[in-house]
Design a protein that fits this description.
globular, N-(1-d-carboxylethyl)-l-norvaline Dehydrogenase, domain 2, 8-stranded mixed β-sheet, Rossmann fold, alpha/beta
Length: about 300
């Protein structure tokens, strides 16, 4: 398949990243179908995509007419057959290799033989479920960052069986949707930036849990010194604390670390079990909308 033949994008999973990837593709002229098994998730996704588009208009990244055209190119569905004419599939479902393998095997039977499959996994290696896709040569990680239109970076991580043609097509596709492609030379869980961020996030959580400083002050230190709009805890809220927990648990199991597993379990009980999932739930480390870190007085030391 050539890049000019890619016209229809199928987004597997309507969570935060599925929404943002869908909008990024649609604003660059692609028709997008967003799939999820949950009607409630799809309703929320449609509302959040509209909200994201409104922000892009407000920030003058899109004109109102371009926003409307992009939104008209996005379809939301619970019907797997929506993938029947997909040219490229991007998957953003929970970090469970068995689940990903099962879902890819399902869609391998539906998608055209030439369709490219990609995974947005943050922690898993594509080789763990490449064979289950039924098309390992046409499969690689294509990993986006939040917010997609701000980060402007995408990781392309092939596994040993990914064809050079697939890597080139994904490189071209990333550029077509306004992203800078970073092609890894070998499989590496957490890519490049996520390796940095894991160290930052684990340090932030350790500082907070040990009583060294508050969530707000840890974020303030990060924001003031680095000149960025969000600190570690704000970024975790945007990622989704359920996703953070899945990553913590996955890394702990890969490392065979009882201590890390205990930390993941503690995190689950403190946040996930209490419904504190971050932005999408209205509360995580901060309360949404209008979190404290967005207030003009925040950097002056006022909560």
């Amino acid at each position: 398949m050539k890049i000019d033949e890619v016209r229809h994008i199928f987004s597997l999973g309507a969570g935060t990243m599925g929404q943002q990837i869908a909008l990024q593709c649609a604003t660059h002229g692609y028709d997008v179908t967003v799939y999820d098994v949950s009607s409630d998730v799809l309703r929320d996704a449609a509302a959040r995509v509209r909200a994201y588009a409104a922000v892009l208009v407000e920030e003058k990244r899109l004109t109102p007419s371009a926003s409307g055209e992009a939104l008209s190119r996005i379809t939301f569905t619970r019907d797997p057959e929506g993938a029947a004419n997909a040219d490229l599939v991007t998957e953003s479902i929970p970090e469970d290799p068995d689940l990903k393998a099962k879902v890819f095997a399902q869609f391998n039977k539906i998608c055209p033989p030439g369709a490219i499959f990609t995974t947005n996994t943050s922690t898993l290696l594509p080789s763990a479920y490449a064979e289950a896709t039924g098309r390992p040569a046409q499969f690689a990680a294509l990993h986006f960052y939040q917010f997609v239109w701000e980060a402007n970076l995408v990781d392309i991580m092939p596994h040993a069986g990914t064809s050079p043609q697939t890597v080139q097509l994904l490189r071209d596709f990333a550029r077509r949707i306004g992203q800078v492609p970073l092609v890894l030379k070998k499989e590496h869980a957490r890519y490049v930036m996520n390796d940095f961020m894991e160290a930052i996030n684990s340090t932030a959580i350790r500082l907070f849990e040990s009583g060294v400083a508050s969530v707000e002050d840890i974020d303030r230190a990060f924001m003031i010194v680095l000149g960025v709009p969000r600190g570690p805890f704000a970024m975790l809220d945007h990622i989704g604390l359920d996703t953070v927990w899945h990553v913590m648990e996955s890394n702990a199991r890969l490392a065979h670390s009882p201590e890390a597993l205990a930390a993941a379990d503690k995190f689950k009980k403190q946040y996930i079990d209490q419904g504190l999932l971050g932005v999408k739930a209205g509360k995580g480390f901060y309360t949404y909308p209008n979190p404290a870190y967005e207030r003009p007085s925040f950097l002056a030391g006022e909560a």
